[in-house]
Structure formats: C-alpha cells, structure tokens
Amino acid sequence: MSDPKNIVKPRLPRGLADRGPAELAASERMLAKIRETYELYGFEAVETPAIEYTDALGKFLPDQDRPNEGVFSFQDDDEQWLSLRYDLTAPLARYVAENFDRLPKPYRSYRAGYVFRNEKPGPGRFRQFMQFDADTVGAASVAADAEICMMAADTLERLGIRRGDYVVKVNNRKVLDGVMEAIGLGGDENAGRRLTVLRALDKLDRLAWDGVQLLLGKGRKDDSGDFTKGADLTSKQIDDIKRFLEFAKRAADAYYPDAFRTIGTEAADVPYQHIKDGFSFLGTNQLLEAGLDEIADIHRYCAAAGYGADRISIDPSVVRGLEYYTGPVFEAELTFGVTDEKGQPVRFGSVGGGGRYDGLVGRFRSEPVPATGFSIGVSRLFAALKLIDSPIVSAGAQRGPVVVLVMDRDRLGHYQAMVAKLREAGVRAELYLGSAGMKAQMKYADRRNAPCVVIQGSDEHARGEVQIKDLIEGSRAASGIQSNEEWKAARPAQFSAPESELVKAVQDVLARHM
Amino acid sequence: MSDPKNIVKPRLPRGLADRGPAELAASERMLAKIRETYELYGFEAVETPAIEYTDALGKFLPDQDRPNEGVFSFQDDDEQWLSLRYDLTAPLARYVAENFDRLPKPYRSYRAGYVFRNEKPGPGRFRQFMQFDADTVGAASVAADAEICMMAADTLERLGIRRGDYVVKVNNRKVLDGVMEAIGLGGDENAGRRLTVLRALDKLDRLAWDGVQLLLGKGRKDDSGDFTKGADLTSKQIDDIKRFLEFAKRAADAYYPDAFRTIGTEAADVPYQHIKDGFSFLGTNQLLEAGLDEIADIHRYCAAAGYGADRISIDPSVVRGLEYYTGPVFEAELTFGVTDEKGQPVRFGSVGGGGRYDGLVGRFRSEPVPATGFSIGVSRLFAALKLIDSPIVSAGAQRGPVVVLVMDRDRLGHYQAMVAKLREAGVRAELYLGSAGMKAQMKYADRRNAPCVVIQGSDEHARGEVQIKDLIEGSRAASGIQSNEEWKAARPAQFSAPESELVKAVQDVLARHM
Fold it and tell me: How far B346 CA sits from the closest chain A CA (Å)?
C-alpha cells in the first residue's frame, strides 16, 4: 500500500503495447507457419541481441522526425554509443562480417525479433514491433532475389491469404538510379537529392502524382500545414521522371504479365527490346539497362518455377524507404479492400518488403559482399490475418484449467493434494487461491474458461466424495432452463464421484468436450 | 566495398551474444517444456514490452556497480525517462495495476522475455538475458507460494533433472526481518542497514561465515583489493545473527524433513513449538513468529501434495538479492557437482528464484495487492541441461535442406523449377545460389548438412535425367573405400532417375534416413 502522494501511475509509454494470451497464441501459430516456410526454402535460424554498437548498425532509416535519427541510443560506461536495433538487417550484416570465415556461403538465415524506432507513435505505428526476416548473403545472382519473392508469395498463401488477394511487387534501384543519372542527378555530390527523389517516389501510393510532383520540385505543405522541402528538380527533370514512370508502368502491365503466362519454358521470351527502346528518350544508360536486365531475369526465374504475374509482378513505382538497397527491391502488398480511418475504401497495403543490399556487409570488410533479403512486418500481417479471419489466428481461446474450489479453508492442503493428482495425470488444474466465497469462486472459474470445477464441502468430505460440475454442459443446459427452482431440482451437469476416482471423473468430463 | 579507412569493426558490445540454429532449436524445446508445465498449473501467457517508464519499474536491483543503478535508461522526446526492463516482475506489477479491474483475481500468468542489466559483464554474466517467470497476483495465502515451489520442482524434473540433483530452498523475509527487529535494526531509519545485512547474508554460500561476518561488521576487502563497506553491527548483534542462523539451520535439518516424510496426511505434525522455543533468545517477536508460521504452512501444503524435503526444503540462509520481497523467498538450486574456473568442485548453484512481493503492485494503488512469483534464469538453466546431457537440449543438429547444384548457369531457371517442385511436395530444398564450381558446391552441401544433392549436367539434361547423390550413405560408404579409383568405379550412393520422377527419387533417399 502506497502513501497516496507517492502512488505511481501505471502506464506504458506511447507506441508500446502489452499482449494477452489469445493474441500470443495466435501470433505464435503465425510465426510457426512463417518459420516452416522459410525452412522449406533452406534458411536456418540465427538470433542477434537487441543492443548493438551504434556505428555497427549505421544510419539508414528514412524520414527522421526525432533526435538520434529515429534510433534509441545510450552511452556505455566506456563512452561508446550503443543503440537498440531498428531493423534485423543491419545486425545481420554485422553478424555475417564477424563470423565470415566459419559461415557457409551463400549464407541463408532467418530471424524473428523485436526492433525499436524512436519515432512519433500513431495508430498502428509502434515504437517496438516485431519483424521476421530471411536473407541470403554471398549470392550475387538475382536468382537469390527471385527466390525471396517466391518465398514471400508462399508465406502469404500458407498463412491463408488467397492468390489474388496479394501481390509481390518487384522493382530495381538500378533502374531508378539510372533514370536519375540520365537526368543529371548522378555522382556523389547528388546523393542527398537522389535520396529525396526516392523518398518522394516512395509516396506515390499515398500522395498520387500531384503530391509527388511537389516533392520533386520546391516542396509540399501537408494537411497539417507542415512543409516538406522538395528535391528542387527542374520541370524538364520532373517531366522525364513522369515519362519514365508512365512508360515503365505500361511496359510492366503489357509485357511482363504476358511473359509470365508462358510459364515453365526455359526462356520466357519477353518482347524485351521494345521495353528498352521505350526508355531511349533517356539516352544510353548502363545502370538503367543493367536494372532492366535484372528485372527480366528475376521475372524469368519466377516464371520458370511457376510463379506468374498473379503472384509476383513488376512495378516501377516500388522504391522502399531504406537507404541501403542497391538492386532489386520488393514489396509484399495485400490487395483486398479495407476502409481507412475516414471510412474510405483503401487497399490493405504493404505487409513486408526487402531488397538487395550489396554494400551493407561490405561496410565491415575490404571486399564487397552481395546480399538480399525480405522482412515481414509481423504486427501488420497479424492484423491482416485477423481481418480475413484466417484460421491460423482466429482459433478460439484455449480452454482454461480445471479449478478445485476451496470450501473449508483449513483443508487447503487436502485440496492441494487433489490438484497435484490431476496435474500428475496431465490435467491442467489449479487450486482457487483467493479468499472469496463460493459464488465468487464459480465466477472466477467462468472467467478462467474452466471446463469444470471440483467441489468438496465437509459433507462430501465425510462421505469420501467429490462433486464435479461440468461448466460447458452446464451453460448449455442453463439456456434451456426457465427458473431457479427448476435448476436446483435438475442440477444439470453436476455429479458425485468417489474421491478415489477424482482423476477419472474429471478426465471423463474433458473427454466429452474434446 | 568500403574505403579501408572507413571500415567499421564488426563486433558486439561485451555481455551480449549471438545464437545459432542448434542453440535456438534446443532453447525453443526447453522453453516449450517450461511453458507446458506452467500451463499445467493454470498459468496463462502475457507479454509486456522491453521499454517502460523508469518510475514504473522502480529501483530494486542489488549491488549497483554502474550509473543508473544497473538499468539502461534514456530520455523520451517529452523529457520523461524510459528504461529497458531489468526483470519481468516490475513490468508485471505495472501491467496488473493498469488492467486491475478486467483481470480475474487471483491472476496467474507466465511470460518469457529478455531483460537488460547495465552491469559489468563477466563469464556467464550477460547484459541481455532471458527470464521465464510465473506469478500469482491477488492471493495472500501462502498456498500460492507452496504451489510455486512445487511448480519449480516439476519444471526441473520435466526438463530431465533427476530428483536429488536439485532442491527448491524456502525461507521467509519476515523471519530475517524479525531477527533484525529483535537485534534493534527495526524501523524506517534502519532500512538501508537492513538491506546491507540481507545482502551480506545472501553471500553466505560464496564467502562462508568468515566473509559474511566482515560484511556485517566494518566491511570486507576482496581478493582484488576492492573494499565493501559493512553494516557496522556490534559484535553482540553479529553473534545473535550467527546464533539464529545456526539454530535455524539445525531446526530445518532436523524437523522439517521429518515432517515432510509424513507425506499426504492432513497436518504433517511438526515438532513446531520446539523450533519457536529455540528462537526465544531473541525475545518475543511477532514478525519472526509470523514468518515461521508461514514456513510451516508452505511446508505442510507441499507435504500434503506429496512434495517431500528431497524436493522442497527449508533453508534459513536463503535471502534473494532483490529488494521488493516481503515474505516467503525461494531458490531453485542444482546440487550436482561441477568444477569452477579454478578446477575446484562446486555445486552448479541457482537456476532460478522468487518470492512474495506484496508491495510491488501496491506502488500503483491505494490498497495493497499480495503477489508471489518465480523466475527461471533461462541461460543458466540451459547451460545446466547441456551439462547433464538432457535429451531436451542435446538432440542432434537438424538435417539440412536438399541442395540442387548448378551445373549450367544458363539453365538457372530450370534448376529453380526443380527446387520449386521439391518444395511443393514439402521437401526442404534450395538452389545453390553462389558462383563456385562443382567441388565447392559439394562442400557447401556438406556444410549445410544436406541429406542429398541433385545434379543435372548437360548430358543428363539431354537424356531427361537427374543424378541424386545420397550424402549420408555416401559418407558411410567412403569410410570403407581405399582409393580414389575404387571410389570412381563404385560411385556409392549415387544413382540416376528420370527428371519426371525427381520428387519421388529424393523422397526415397529421405525415407532411408528417417
């Protein structure tokens, strides 16, 4: 008991949440299914701690609206800066670099864990949330990227999301970088502006072209009046980007799906030269061509393995916010409709994404190390599965334990012995440990979702008996009974048993409701 | 690739560790077994985040050798202090207080999670480690404490620790507090000195009486020359504590085990008055008597449920370092011998502990809320299970995936299709994604612990065939073969199959090694 003046308010910081038993069980089933899919693809588990050296993580987060660029950081006793991980990719890069010689290469691994972002929390936006990642390190071939896309598709389907209700969208940073080079934004000196352009394009879904156009130019004032400075491109540069996006979208829609339909043939023959020709207004650009070649290859590998455009499709507007991507980028999107906060119908949107980050492990080494990966936003995916009522998350609450009631407080030890016998037989059981009377004990058993209670008052004790009350049957019977009197006369679903047969009697009740 | 000047060193801060697939799988099996036992006792899962308000956690850690009293803390953007949780009990108290009205009472819950201590790391001492807790909140009866002790014993046995190789030791803070009151250390003004005394007694195992005696008096200089200030008790006070410990130990050894042997009787009749008489040199003391009564009750409940002194025993030297305990305290100790860093035989020691903390939820409320709980130190217990070779942690490494080798790089899509077919049939399989030749690919498959590889060069392709190489059988056969020539002639464990029967051929190999 606290002095009223000193009472601490029990509360969580914003953007953090507790989770109860039903959500934990459902989430565990979901994670098990993801794990199973990743293992089917040959990935093996690895885990890194939540805390790393700040310099080992690097700074790759988009849109820092907080100090420390969105990362929780603190100083160690030797003055070195430590940070909570903000994703699972940067720690993996550190892990691979640290254990490079003893790991098989390519190194395929998966890991689930909490990450932390020191961002402004909002609806559905948490400061601690779980990611589930898979990465292939040491494979330069885009066959690795293609496989990651297929695995993303498989994962969603195994979780109960129907084909057609999702799409894994593929693009390539090299294409975007090539376009920027072509319009005069190449070179180290333009790195900052390139990033601003990428982040503007990343908002195409949300702001449409009109909004993005402003962010490519002078800047944009949002609904709240906040002004975001733009990339300050010329109108010719903005027009070229627009023209690129339009043609790329048309080409993706027209040609790649066609090619995807010729599934299983060795080289799904894309009318590929036509696409390259379409970009000729940008001049000859090696980066752009390399990017297009990689997209075509990914698409060819997917098609060969039977994954058509209904599952994996090319989308030139996919950017991904993180700075470290260097090649193919992916976004797993749920395409079914939901209503947003304003009641407007919208697509559910992204539940995961990833891409190739050939420079990230290289930060630690003198030679480059190619790598690609995919990250599932576990909470968002969980919310989606609840929305579509996937059996994986919607299974009913687990049945509670059998509750042994306490009728005579001086026989607590005796009741404890009954509970111990039930547990020895593998029956989940507990002694009522509070100090309330019979009625409150029954209410407690109801709240615990107990299948039955065991009652032994002094009369039953004298006769060497116990009463078993089947709460499931009882609540069913109760709905058909009119009066208290009728109830007392019938006492449905309650019966006596010799105490020596307690375990069997309880097991019989449990067997009724299997 | 990084500029050599800018290469970041890939390293983890001290006291933090990565975990690979074998350890993760073993640890998952261990956690599942603990979870199963806790659920058998009627506890339900709950999870709280890693970050809390610093004031909600409170400061209850022993032996702060770091700033922030052993806790990692940082300021939020509104200047409020946040901390990483240092245990799972303080967050539970916050959770229960925040959700008090909607939770069933007593509220039984369990949770596993990482906790963080900003302490000096050392061998086996980590700054991030996992705890697995179970707590009953809202039960004042020591029947709840007794049950926690039984559950601790059950958990250890279910994990493969034999009866006799562990003991759950029980004591009561009220007894210790009563002794201190009796020797003149009562009252708020002596709270600090009482804590110093408790922490000195907590070191009895490690320092023996000679060392503890110094900590009760002026202080003690350790081997490294560091001086720890003592509680500054008079020699009469120190003598009284010694006399108490001696008699309590004798009484516990002599009487409680006897009583434990009369298992299953309603009131295991302890020669109880004799024990109380033994403490009469301390005068009449209500706290001490209440503590002894509670110990006797716990002991009676355990005995009634069939848990004898071979599993749960009274030990007056058990203290527990955390400040928030108010009544019974427990310590789960492994009693089998191991050798310490100096090669000396020692007991393995504590793998968990807990106790009653009736004030902790009350920090948030105007009325007291009784509570008791138990916490397993997961990494220590894991180390113990490895030491005794418990089947739960010592199962062999999981078999790796089937690896499809890449012989013709221009047929990557075709190989990808083979892999997809295997996966569709539920066979864990992967395409070799690196750029190395045949020999390195075989070595890779070995390192991945692959059961077999699939090979299709251009000759096999022309014939519509695949080669399957059984690596398990192959390595067995290899040990009986003398020369390279003999090997090439026999080619053991390698066979051809039509490509159309790839899946069946691979499944046949897997079935051989089930």
Answer: 31
